[in-house]
Amino acid sequence: MSAKTNPLKVIAAVCIFAVGLSIIVLVTSESSLADRDYIAYWAIGHQLLAHANPYAQSAFLAWNPSGGHVAIVRYPPSGLVFSLLLAQFSLRTAVIAIG
Questions:
Q1: Among candidates 34, 31, 45, 33, which has minimal Cα distance to 75?
Q2: pLDDT digit string (tens) for 1-22?
Q3: CB neighbour class for 36 (10 Å; exposed up to 12, middle 13-18, buried from 19)
Q4: How far is the C-alpha of 48 from the C-alpha of 77, rounded, in Å?
Q5: Does pTM surpass 0.85?
Q6: Which among 28, 30, 65 is positioned nearest to 46, based on CA atoms?
Q7: How far, in Å, CA of 67 to CA of 75, rounded?
Q8: Which residue from 18, 19, 29, 17 is spatially nearest to 96, judged by alpha carbons?
Q9: Rounded distance between C-alpha atoms, residue 60 and residue 46, angstroms
């Protein structure tokens, strides 16, 4: 006995997924990303990838798309590994992936 997949169910599932993803993308606009703490973790990762000081506050201002205030995170060196993973993506893509 093989179960046949109803093509209408597959189409409905794909449509629901596409609508959900579209809503997530629209909600995560550049202006709303600048107000989140997430940008500090993402900026730390980019500082590490550039072999720069991840604790330098002046460097964080360059990574903020809105040019506003960025919360400085004081991780111990062992906690910086997570930030390296986040820096592999663009800010918007990483926020969508992480949620």
A1: 45
A2: 456 778 899 999 999 999 888 7
A3: middle
A4: 11
A5: no
A6: 65
A7: 23
A8: 29
A9: 9
Per-residue model confidence as pLDDT tens digits over 35-87: 667 777 788 888 888 888 887 777 666 666 555 555 667 778 887 888 888 88
Alpha helix segments (H runs only) across the chain:
7-27, 30-33, 38-49, 57-63, 81-86, 91-98
Structure tokens that stand for 93 in this block: 């893509």
Structural domain spans, the chain: 30-98
Alpha-carbon gap, residue 26 to 49, rounded angstroms: 29
Distance CA 92, CA 14 (A): 22
Task: For residue 65, give the 3-state DSSP assignment.
Answer: coil
